[in-house]
Amino acid sequence: MPHTNNLNGKSRPFSADRKAKRAGRKPAFLAKKPKSSKTPSAKDAVVGPAPAAAASSDPSIPRDRTKQTELIRAFHAIEKQLASPALTDPAERKKLEDERERLGGLAEYQRASVHGGDAQRGGESSKWLVKQIKELKIGVDSKDKDKANHKVEPTILEDGTKVWPKVERKKLRLLDIGAIAGTAYAGYPWISATSIDLNPQAPHVVKSNFFDFAPPQKDEDKYDVVALSLVVNFEGSLVNRGHMLLHAHQYLTPRGYLYLVLPLPCLTNSRYLSHERLTSILASTGWDVVRKHDSARLTYWLVRRSEDGPDGKEWKREQVRKGAGRNNFVIVVKPGAPIERGVAPSRDGTETEAATADEE
């Protein structure tokens, strides 16, 4: 069939004129609109609160994820140099401290972490915990557990509508330590999270040290879960790390859970700690391991209060593996020892360090 613009191989008279008019022109949807230099007037202004994304933006934090990661790595590098025994020159120390302040110090580091730049944190570790809570039916009413553990069949009404049996779940109370902005469990309406942090980045996060946060006095106010996600490794006091495992009991229901997350090298590359030794320390401090999992960067542990409770044993720094290139991360347990105050935060236990001379 010949083209509509051709007649016996010859162009229609008007087709050339139409093509001439369209020459050099783009369809309207492809044409770029010129940028307006008009200043928005009050009439054009948005009335009401700013969008959530805009409200949460921080001009001091780089938007680019790579730059956020670079900021955090620079902070870690400075902390590592400041903690090195080889740093003896006061002028060099002052230079590093000034550089840390130029980067914004701990507050800036935490804000960058909130914006997702800290690759070491591995994103929100709450996802793994929520998955375990669902699989273990934690918070599901005991009379509904049999229902939850078997295949659920709906009731079919006369009109064909399917009605699924409702499984009752109580609202879990969770204490999130080192929550920063307190967003980890915001997307789960069946979790009531209380968030605390030394340097909170949101108004609903309580500014408090874990050891100074008052434990609940009434049974109904106790928590079902205490989350120590990437907290113990930042505690500079080796003794306080053990105290955290003991102190968590005061906040929990009789068979409550502790959620512990550490950088994986704290167990796989430490001179003083391994999976086996951590399991023994947890048992000694009153915890039964329920679930554990290692990702490429982190190790996740969900443990439950044991019926026997802590056994009062001390755990000192003892070498579990040898070889160069190890880190010195360790958890020391000294029941009854006072809480140590004023100890600088740890770098996180993953950096390779030389063996120290003051080993116990």
Multimeric state: single chain
What number is the mean pLDDT? 77
Question: What is the CATH C level class of the domain at 122-305, in words?
Answer: Alpha Beta
Task: Give, in spatial order, the strands making up the sheet with the most strands.
Answer: 7-6-5-8-9-11-10
CATH-defined superfamily of the domain at 122-305: Vaccinia Virus protein VP39
Function: S-adenosyl-L-methionine-dependent methyltransferase that specifically methylates the N(1) position of an adenine present in helix 65 in 25S rRNA.
EC number: 2.1.1.-
Biased composition (Low complexity): 37-60
Binding site for S-adenosyl-L-methionine: 178, 197
Architecture overview:
Its EC number is 2.1.1.-. Belongs to the BMT2 family. Residues 1-70, 339-360 are annotated as: Disordered. Keywords: Methyltransferase, Nucleus, S-adenosyl-L-methionine, Transferase. Helices cover 28% and strands 16% of the residues. With 360 residues, the chain is of the alpha/beta class. Among the domains are: 60-114, no CATH class; 122-305, Vaccinia Virus protein VP39 (Rossmann fold, 3-Layer(aba) Sandwich), CATH 3.40.50.150. The strands form three sheets. A seven-stranded mixed beta sheet has the order 7-6-5-8-9-11-10, with helices on both faces. It has a two-stranded antiparallel ribbon with strand order 1-2. It has a two-stranded antiparallel ribbon with strand order 3-4. β10 and β11 (298-305) form a beta hairpin. α3 (65-83) packs antiparallel against α5 (105-114). The longest helix has 19 residues, at 65-83. The N and C termini lie far apart (95 Å).
